[in-house]
Design brief:
single chain, 318 residues, Serine Threonine Protein Phosphatase 5, Tetratricopeptide repeat, two-stranded antiparallel ribbon
């Protein structure tokens, strides 16, 4: 019986009994570390005391490799084809077509063939007239009808928003946080990072579920890997509170690259505590400025100047 891991065992033999694939044995890799293979559940259990330390170390390394990987940037606005801002105030979800439109395109004037400004109350993408012209009651009824239609199509943002409405008791819904969590779990399984972040917040605050910090961290990590800067910033705070400054800075740097000014501010607050942190903060500032350059356009600047709810640019702290 083998109690150690060799390269041969890793690739072709059971780490416990030594039976090999060449004999027709169906081997399965350890799901946690991927380092060793076993021919049966019994062999895996028998070998665990010898494999445990190595397995946990490698599993933690693999987890951190995924956790601290920079997520892909948010998609582009489908009209101007410029990267959408991270902050929700810089973009609007259109329930009519399921598209996120940047504030610049939302409020840009629409011209006819003679150059005259025409009605721009319609959706900038699908040109559908919003239901709010029919009155408040009709608007809420039509809005929920559209959201349910989009949710039936597995539109993750629609499912996420419905969860928020149930959580806060909006648009005629009675407050039902259990239903909200059900919807957020559904959207999270479909890849909605914001839903996973809300589940993490629910466990962190004991809102609708029993408070559970372990589950909170689990869902916040899933959300951060999916691109949620709010979850990433939260994880940085948790790591700092645990005394893990390096891990906190890694989280905040990733979030800063994705346009989270709060994470940049956290790094700025930290740099006086160590001379080496000054260079980290300067690097973070460069990343944040690069993000602002990516999302900048004249139309978005005009929208930010004229609409209070569209001010998505944030000042960098000195």
């Amino acid at each position: 019986m083998s109690n150690t891991t060799s390269s041969k065992e890793t690739t072709s033999t059971c780490a416990n009994c030594g039976k090999g694939e060449e004999a027709g044995i169906n081997l399965k890799a350890c799901t946690a570390c991927k380092l060793v293979k076993y021919c049966s559940r019994e062999c895996q259990i028998a070998h665990w005391p010898h494999h445990k330390k190595e397995c946990k170390k490698k599993a933690a390394e693999l987890h951190d490799e995924k956790l601290f990987k920079q997520p892909p940037p948010r998609e582009d606005c489908p009209i101007c084809m410029i990267r959408l801002p991270t902050l929700i105030t810089g973009r609007t979800y259109m329930i009519c077509c399921g598209k996120f439109i940047c504030s610049g395109c939302m409020y840009a004037p629409v011209y006819d063939h003679e150059g005259n400004v025409i009605d721009n109350e319609k959706c900038p993408f699908c040109r559908t007239l919003p239901p709010y012209f029919a009155g408040k009651v009709a608007f809420e009824r039509e809005r929920i009808k559209q959201y349910n239609k989009r949710a039936d199509m597995n539109d993750t943002q629609a499912i996420f928003n419905l969860g928020c409405y149930h959580s806060e008791g909006l648009y005629g819904f009675a407050q039902n946080r259990a239903k909200a969590l059900e919807l957020w779990h559904r959207a999270g399984e479909l890849g909605c990072a914001e839903s996973l972040n809300n589940i993490g917040d629910s466990y962190y605050n004991g809102r609708g579920v029993e408070r559970d910090e372990k589950k909170s961290i689990h869902y916040h990590e899933l959300a951060a890997m999916g691109g949620s800067v709010m979850a990433r910033n939260h994880l940085g705070v948790i790591e700092l509170q645990a005394g893990n400054m390096d891990r906190a800075l890694r989280h905040w740097m990733i979030a800063t690259k994705d346009g989270d000014v709060l994470s940049l501010q956290h790094i700025g607050i930290m740099w006086p505590h160590g001379s080496s942190l000054r260079s980290v903060y300067e690097e973070a500032q460069r990343h944040y400025l690069a993000y602002l350059d990516e999302i900048k356009s004249d139309q978005r600047d005009e929208a930010a100047a004229h609409y209070d709810n569209s001010k998505y640019y944030e000042e960098i702290i000195d």
